[in-house]
Design brief:
The protein is 66% helix and 0% strand. The chain contains 3 helices and no strands. The longest helix is centred in the middle third of the chain and has 17 residues, at 16-32.
Amino acid sequence: MYFSHISKQLCEDDAKRTIDCYLYWMKAYIIFIGKTHSNHCDEKAVEQFLSYL
């Protein structure tokens, strides 16, 4: 799974709960943008996500 791959790349000094939090917010953003690759999104998509929150 993609998130398992990312969690291994995150700094090993970070606490498990910190990594889990990062993954939670990344997943929320990916779902919000309609599972579109982030390379195809612009700053407006990030602004919309933050406003949504």
